[in-house]
Amino acid sequence: MPIKKWFIQYLLGFPILFALLSGIQYLKGRSWDYALSFGLLWSLISLAIFASTRLYYYRKGMYCKVCNDLPGQGSTEDKTELTSKE
Questions:
Q1: By the 8 A CB rule, do 13 and 42 touch?
Q2: Cβ(63)–Cβ(76) under 8 Å?
Q3: Which residues make Cβ contacts (< 8 Å) with residue 30, sequence separation at least 6?
Q4: Conformation bin of residue 80: beta by default, left when phi > 0, alpha when psi is -120 to 50
Q5: What whole-number distance in Å separates Cα of residue 64 and Cα of residue 85?
């Protein structure tokens, strides 16, 4: 399992989500206390949903182009050659 890769991604994603959600609430006129608690709660909830979805896909062996977590999975595009008849 790519635990290290996921851990680094979540360490980067949490502060970005937290700052974004807290900043939006503050710009909407809420107090700093509310904005910070809102940002903390919803960034944790959204990362938990994302992590559980990725874990589910990984365990089921479902390929995700965005995640790219399954080893040995190349492009699944149709690679047919075009030939012209003369």
A1: no
A2: yes
A3: 38
A4: beta
A5: 38
What distance in Å separates the CA atoms of residue 64 and residue 5, rounded to the nearest whole number?
15
pLDDT digits (tens, 9 = 90+) for 1-21: 677 888 888 899 999 999 999
pLDDT tens for each residue of 21-32: 999 999 999 999
The SS3 call for residue 61 is coil
Pairwise CA distance, residues 27 & 41, whole Å = 18
Amino acid at the residue 72: G
Structure tokens at 11: 């360490």
CA–CA–CA angle 39, 43, 44 (5° rounding): 120
Written as one string, the DSSP assignment of 1-52 is --HHHHHHHHHHHHHHHHHHHHHHHHHTT--HHHHHHHHHHHHHHHHHHHHH
